[in-house]
Amino acid sequence: MPDDKAGALEKHQLPTEVRDSLDELRALSSKAEDGDKDAKKELRRKLRGASPQVVARASDISRTAQHMLIRTAAAKDPLTQGALSGRLDMMREEIAGENPTSLEVLLTERIVSCWMVVTLFEVLMAGQLNADAKSRTPLSYTLKMLKWQESAHRQYLAAIRELARVRKLEASLPTVQVNNQVNILQG
Amino acid sequence: MTLERRDGNLYYYRSVRDGEKVRKVYVGAGEFARLSAEGDILRRTDRKAQRAQEMAELGRLRALADPVLELVEAAEILARAYLIASGCHRHKGEWRRARR
Hints:
The complex is a heterodimer of chains A (187) and B (100). Chain A is 75% helix and 0% strand.
């Protein structure tokens, strides 16, 4: 069963300024979707400013969360920990592809994290089903876990769909991504 | 569940739910009543402790998954903002590119 302290995870949350940025982006998106042109302009501006910070912080948190999920799923077995960690790196590389945009990086982290949650629930459920009658937990507990497992699986599939959607749509879109330009003075 | 003393004798009854009503079911008298009552108390305490342990374990699991949920939310907000800012719109739940 999970061995990590719940209290230790409390600090692995998005900082207030990042949450505020997300709230602002959400509000502006809603206004822009309703046809507010000024909101759309503001959204583009905010996106340029806030996006890198949000991606960076969310990615940090997801890496920490993945690490804790790995430790729990591997039950402190270093070999399994290494295998899972390697698997996540491989997934990350395969899914993000070459030169991913910052949004693709975030969506990739989301897929990888959701996969890890699904895997953890699978491991825990398998443990439950294989346990002998004495050490098996009651049905209510197992049902709750099953519900969470289903929800995690739905989130995993939704994460894959989202990345596919973004890639499909951005193929012919005027990009709002900000690329850092480096000018090299010659002579 | 009650352990009743009447006329110097002990009587033990269990409360059993029967649909909407709760029935009082006679278990036994004397020493047997006392032992049954103590057994029930122990079982109840065990069940309570087990439930508390399960809740704590579910809480730990929840806490493990919470940062991922936060990431999911952040990614959703950012992806939506990005698509809207790029001129996409939703039509019956489906994202579409703006016409050029």
